[in-house]
From TrEMBL:
Keywords: Cytoplasm. Transmembrane segments: none annotated. Residues 4-139 form the UspA domain. Belongs to the universal stress protein A family. It is found in: Cytoplasm. This is Universal stress protein. Its main location: cytoplasm. GO terms for cellular component: cytoplasm. Gene3D superfamilies: HUPs. InterPro entries: Rossmann-like_a/b/a_fold (IPR014729), Universal_stress_UspA (IPR006015), UspA (IPR006016). Coiled coil: none annotated. The lineage of its organism: Bacteria, Pseudomonadati, Pseudomonadota, Gammaproteobacteria, Vibrionales. It holds the Pfam family Usp. It comes from Photobacterium profundum 3TCK.
Amino acid sequence: MALYQTILLSVNPDDIDAHKLMIKAGVVAEQNNAELHIVFVEPGVGNVSYMDVELGLEESHNDLELKRMNQLSELSKQSPYPVRAVHIADGGVTNHVIELAEKIKANLVMTGYHKNRFHWCNDISHDVAQEVKCDVMILQ
């Protein structure tokens, strides 16, 4: 019997360890015959990224979103197990990851250790682990 039916990997495609995280998530998903989803949230406030606040330009937002989707698509191709869906959002990382985990009924959220420059006390992974209603695996 599999422990997990749906796995959500929260990953930053610019992270040096993104490939390693994708491989690990793919292996765990394969071992559990689970649906594998990946998500990236462009850090910000509410549903707006900090980049949008700084630039205030729709065109640069669209370019950045296209770049992120391409990066995540390429990353998903590196998984040893098929990725069911790629998700992208802007704003509060913790809130978006938790909302998506609930929406897709994730049994496991996997994430790397993320020290956000805007969170001086906690890292994002710790915040997700404290609030999401499923297992969390924080990978190094």
